[in-house]
Amino acid sequence: MPWISSVPQFCNSPTMIVMVGLPARGKTYISKKLTRYLNWIGVPTKSFNVGQYRREAVKIYKNFEFFNPNNEEAMKIRKACAAAALKDVAAYFLKEQGQVAVFDATNTTRERRAVILSYAKEKGYKVFFVESICEVPEIIEENIKQVKFGSPDYVDRDIVEAMEDFSQRIDCYRASYMPIDDEKDRKLSYIKIFDVGSRYLVNRVQDHIQSRIVYYLMNIHVTPRSIYLSRHGESELNLSGRIGGDSGLSPRGQKYANALATFIRGQNIRELKVWTSHMKRTIQTAEALGVQYEQWKALNEIDAGVCEELTYEEIQENLPEEFALRDQDKYRYRYPKGESYEDLVHRLEPVIMELERQENVLVICHQAVFRCLLAYFLDKPADELPYLRCPLHTVLKLTPIAYGCKVESFFLNIEAVNTHRERPVNVDINRNPEEALQTVPDHI
Amino acid sequence: MTRELTQNRIQKIWEPTKDDRPAPRRAAGAPHFANPPTVIVMVGLPARGKTYMSKKLTRYLNWIGMPTKVFNVGEYRREAVKNYSSYDFFKPDNECAVKIRQQCALAALRDVTSYLKDEGGQVAVFDATNTTRDRRELILQFGSENGFKIFFIESVCDDPSVIASNIMEVKVSCPDYRDCNKTDAMLDFQRRIECYKTSYQPLDPDQYDRDLSFIKVIDVGRRFLVNRIQDHIQSKIVYYLMNIHVQPRTIYLCRHGESTDNLQGRLGGDAGLSPRGKQFAAALAGFVQEQQLKDLKVWTSQLCCSIQTAEHLGVPYEQWKALNEIDAGMCEEMTYDEMKEKYPEEFALRDEDKYYYRYPAGESYQDLVQRVEPVIMDLERQENVLVICHQAIMRCLLAYFLDKSAEEMPYLKCPLHTVLKLTPVAYGCKVESMSLNVEAVNTHRDRPEEVKRGPGTLIRRNSVTPLTSPESNIKKPRIDDLDQAPIHELPPTGASLALCSPSRLPLSLSQHWLGKVCLRTVLQYLKVVSLLVFQRT
């Protein structure tokens, strides 16, 4: 069923993002992160890692000799894997309505890139190359430690042996590595990333999505840091089971704010930035920290439109059809004269972009906003997003690690109402009130 | 102990209660990311689009609320040397001219300091060729001494047709060439470029300049080299530069056809078109046909009246929620009279400061700018576009294209049933207003006379009031202490001195600008030169 999102969709021909670079240059890191971001903003994206195809084809990895360019048999297998991945890309675009495919492999020879370009041309796909160039030994070593030792290829190896083998693997590629050439390849669209973002060369950005990708890639970094997410302390309206509004903290909410201050101090965070919304309850929470904070209107809770300050019971009584429709598609459902989760995601995009730029940040926000941010960091799809659990008085600490995010949850031991409403079994508009209100949490 | 919070009456922002002092107006939408101040330094040969980029960037930054100003050294030079005679002025061995040009650069830098330190500016764009390492070193020193961040924007282009086109578009009509015909002007300007070429040292990302923060714009945006972005504002600047283009195109702005709510004088809502509104939509379809545009994109909001208008065009259109009318919150669907009656204080506050005023549980114009920014970014990428939106939104968009300040924005006239046709030209935008001859109500409310103005909304330290890109400083007296800079006596040989038209000795050099020392020197220079002139003829 076709639907219109709140922002025009800007992808007409599907786009292939083709990674380029020696091993351990962050290609898979970038592929996964970019895929996560694009999916979150609503562009269906999938990453195709040729190494995984190779692991499927050659069940056991012996050593770097597999990657020796003179190993003809291995070369055949590797070519076949690349071809298989390309076929899957075509299937993704055609049958799964994908819009962007990230082709994650070294793609270090002009020959291999020519194959991809002609494939794409034949099928009518746009191609955008992302090349990662780095010769800083510390960075490469750190990459290898973070992601290679844990890979299936090295799972039973001794670390020193693994490092040695991997270095020789890189050498196998080095001899035939032809970086994208600024002269010969001047008609191609690409971005070259040097030394993890210290410099970029951008050539021929063709369209909106490529422009967004470039902007995103230029804002991400790999400096270790943590992001703390928390909701405001329990509010007066929370207590009475009402949604939205702009009420202040309840006494327990105030206690939480103080506990949060103690917790944050205990974490000993270097140069922490604190962000709140424009709503009283988040600001009151931040005030207890006694540090500077910045207010973002974009962090305001979802606008419930005509349902602002109503309880779920009241919504069921006055707008039972709306209530059911929301349960049918909570991500896309827009409150009359209000917003949807989908709208929220677009509203939050500049916040995410700035979070990527920053280092240590504490974000004090609201339930729906929290869910959107969490879905971005933990790569949760749209149908799960509106049901993520984000209880009051609990801080989540997110630390990027390897290809993902470590999550630590800290409940600060101050009781609060539960505001989480699960999807009821019956979402039909003709259901009876008891069925509709089955999952409403308790309140005054 | 937690501080008490009060909600600021105009912006509806919760702030710790201050004792009596009115809370300073602060950034509503999003945090401010521009401390310390930044100096953007343009680099490049003449006719590479430096001033074009400077002005456009400044307009954009001011619109998003970052006080920015351009300092064009060429303008300082035109003040100092009232009459430009020929490209000889730019010859690298023209010692006197070199000195004057140096003084101009220093004067501009002094004004930059004053703007960033004393006038609440946050970004200064230093628009000059800055083609030598020495000159850039001077600027880096200057930045370091004053605690300013430096970001270079270099424009590199060797396509002769692009350069010729630039020269025709903005140089032949500039004050330097007011007495020349086009061909002569073109020729002189090209020779002027040659004067710079020999000493041009482009930014070198591999060695010499690898620790500097800069973007090289190559061939009008075909390629970019970005080095060491330091912060949020530099990242936004880079993103903006990568989205703008110079292809000729036209942007059409109009409001939806008259709606049934308009007829009743109601704010907001989501009503459909009135019969006259439908007439307008039909007329709009005819208008669009007549314009005979290649590939017109049509954008609407997600409100009924805007979409209904587009429907009449019979072409595909895209809906943007970001183009929805300003949310009047609790005042949605009221008439102004009802609002005045039900919320008299709010009504008065809105007139007091319409740009910052946020409707209770609604939005302000300032919020709108934030909301609409991605639309602007996309408009920059596009070519021919027709945007069918709403009154407040249209005012925001128009303020961006026409460089209008926050003060003016909420009062820009955007009547129903009128299409504004915007065509980029030279450094600005040509506007043509076309009424489609279908009657409609007037929804415009002028700023009431008797309203007492709030504390000056213009320049405030760390404010986010969009300003019209400020006028250049040239009119104000600047340097009183030029005596500090030593100026050597000129050698009497005048082999490479520029020619000045003898009938117009620059006695009009203002006494303010040049101390007596320099005036004497310049007069001596002119004496020598006029000798030369008479010798030659």
Description:
In chain A, helix 11 packs across helix 12 and helix 13 crosses helix 14. Chain A has 444 residues and is an alpha/beta fold. The longest helix of chain A has 24 residues. In chain A, strand 11 and strand 12 form a beta hairpin. Helices cover 40% and strands 15% of the residues of chain A. In chain A, the strands form two sheets. A six-stranded mixed β-sheet of chain A has the order 2-3-1-4-5-6, sandwiched between helices. Chain A has a six-stranded mixed β-sheet with strand order 9-8-10-7-11-12, sandwiched between helices. Chain B has 537 residues and is of the alpha/beta class. Helix content of chain B is 36%, strand content 13%. The chains are: A alpha/beta (444), B alpha/beta (537). At the A-B interface, strand 6, helix 7, helix 10, strand 9 and helix 13 of A face strand 8, helix 7, strand 11 and helix 13 of B.
Topology:
The complex is a heterodimer of chains A (444) and B (537).
Chain A: E1 15-20, H1 27-40, E2 45-49, H2 50-57, H3 72-95, E3 100-104, H4 110-123, E4 126-133, H5 137-148, H6 159-174, E5 190-194, E6 199-203, H7 208-219, E7 227-231, H8 236-239, H9 251-267, E8 273-276, H10 280-287, E9 294-295, H11 312-318, H12 320-328, H13 341-357, E10 361-365, H14 367-378, E11 394-401, E12 404-411, H15 433-436
Parallel strand pairs in A: 1-3, 1-4, 2-3, 4-5, 7-10, 8-9, 8-10
Antiparallel strand pairs in A: 5-6, 7-11, 11-12
Helix pairs in contact in A: 2-3, 9-10, 11-12, 13-14
Chain B: E1 5-7, E2 14-16, E3 38-43, H1 50-63, E4 68-72, H2 73-80, H3 95-118, E5 123-127, H4 133-146, E6 149-156, H5 160-171, H6 182-197, E7 214-218, E8 223-227, H7 232-243, E9 251-255, H8 260-263, H9 275-291, E10 297-300, H10 304-311, E11 318-319, H11 336-342, H12 344-352, H13 365-381, E12 385-389, H14 391-402, E13 418-425, E14 428-435, H15 516-536
Parallel strand pairs in B: 3-5, 3-6, 4-5, 6-7, 9-12, 10-11, 10-12
Antiparallel strand pairs in B: 1-2, 7-8, 9-13, 13-14
